[in-house]
Specification:
Methylamine Dehydrogenase, Chain H; five-stranded mixed sheet; 12 helices; disordered N terminus; binds (dicuprio-$l^{3}-sulfanyl)-sulfanyl-copper; binds dinuclear copper ion
Amino acid sequence: MIGFLDRSGLLSNRGRVIIALVGLGALFVFAGGVIACAENAQGDLMSIAAARGISPDDAARALKSFVPPGGKDDYLIFASGGHSGQVLVVGVPSMRLLRVIAVFTPEPWQGYGYGSDWSAQALADSSPGKEEIRWGDSHHPALSETDGDYDGRWLYINDRAHGRIAMVDLKDFRTKQVIHVPNLQTSHGGIFATPDTKYVHISSMVPALKRWDAKVGASVTVDEHLNNYGDIYRGYSTFLKIDQDTGRMAVEDSFQIELPPYTQDLADAGKGPSYGYAFINSYNSERATGGVNFGRQPLEVGASEYDFDYLHVINWQKAEEVIAAGNYEEVNGIRLITLETAVAEGLIHLVPEPKSPHGVDVAPNGNYLTVSGKLDPHVTVYGFDKILAAIEAEDFEGTDDYGIPIVRFDAAVAGQVEVGAGPLHTQYDNEGNGYTSLFLETAVAKWSLGEPYHSGDEAWQLVDKLGVHYNIGHLATAHGDTMNPRGGYLVALNKWSLDRFTNVGPLLPQNFQLVDLTGETMDLLYDMPIGVGEPHYAQIVSTDVINPEQVYPLGTSAMTGEISAQAIEGGEQSRIEHRPGETEVWMTVIRSQYAPDVVPVKLGDKVTIHLTNIEQTLDATHGFSIPGKDIMVSIDAGETITIEFEADTPGSFSFYCTEFCSALHLEMQGWLIVEEE
Ligand code: RUQ
Ligand code: CUA
């Protein structure tokens, strides 16, 4: 029975628990510098555990994940926020939520999407069509890398609902760019940074209408959709060029490769020996269209007919040469290599992969690629060396309908491990093991890779399995997508937390479960409910490499990182300028006052206010909001922000600071007075 102190359990586990508790007691003795009796401390801890109904195992787990008040975590999880459209930052091992970074969805605390010029600039190119999109389904984060390891510079994340990608600057944890990628309608897990962050890759998910092709055009009939799907839809693999100073994605320097209309899913970057390659999974190679009401099979039936789908093996370094040779079309503002050219130039090959795969994950050595079909109990591991050799030898089992050569399955496979039902996604540790999430079985399987990690009977073995709660989607290990995984911890990203937490209504929180990888067997340490959306993927990075600045140099525009032309250096320069039809204000912000604090404007004026937070200490963020206006900005120490609005209602409006900044925070208030002519 969970949560009940089992006496016999206590006895049998006694030795282990005593070691854990004595360890803690010794820590207290050391930290306090007092001679205390470890036995007493131990006795106290035992009675606390007993009083709270905590088992010896749970007590040991608590010690492993507890970070004392004031203590810091070893790792940060950057997790997608799902429907919230944001990124969640969680400490490991404490599993404390440290930050929510506003990305696709407006967020008032950070002043994101409510009038600040930096968020307006970040979101300027973010809408795919006529309508401004105010939400996103953030799915797959990708941290920037240097030499194949996370470098703490930038974070990229896609919006599943649209073909959008955002860049978060880890210098200040702010979103600096959100773009809609040309030709994509949706995107999914096809996002990764190359090991040097030369490019960030994003692919389409559901194929998009080939609307740039004059033969297809922008419109479609139901009949064309159902009968010509394979001709008029296409997928896209996009290599977004990254500016190495700012992390920004430069679409004009980027390129795209047209793909068949399979549903491209997760992707990963080649590294080490496979550097220069990209690997993208796909499903629905059947190209099922749905349309039950038109006498067609349901999509889930039609898309599960074949025993194999395709892994796309893309040589992007060779694609760069094709681009350099001018062998591309300019389509909707991006250079596109057509599928025909890609095939003719040998940029793309397919490898069959078992039924409806989800993840493709490149092992730390860059040679092994693990895929798993959701409807097959195995993980299948390809050798990149084997794939290359097969391509060299033209060891193909034919081509697909678009002329892409298909590498013979057996020629590519290095090993297979039966792991259990519904394998989805794999991460690695520092000892040559893979960890695969099992959606149907709701478990994590640990298994061993082959040479050079393990040989003989040790290779390709299921090593351990741990039940998690409830349906697991993805999982993440420390630096698990890099060439230098750290081991130690794994986090299972579970879906609905059935029966796991106090009932808070029918919409169930998700559940992050922290797993200890240091022992013989995996051990579940901690449950963290996530009540803000459904995270899909996460990366775990050592806090050593994340060093954001906390105070901006005076007058900095967060967007450019440069001193703003509108910055105010000292209180004296704060001023109001009236011109016909407009009022421009330079305002200083310091605890606990705005200067000027009474702002007279004329009815109908276009009002521009440049706010400079002239503080240079760490705890000095101020806010600014005006009643009746959709304006809420947050101004960090040293920052300059500009807001604009129309004074369309006569009267007086009390603006105020929204951050509890000082003892006289409530007095940090002023007046906007809109005078009628
Ligand atoms: S996903 S689990 Cu983007 Cu695999 Cu949802
Ligand atoms: Cu500034 Cu409250």
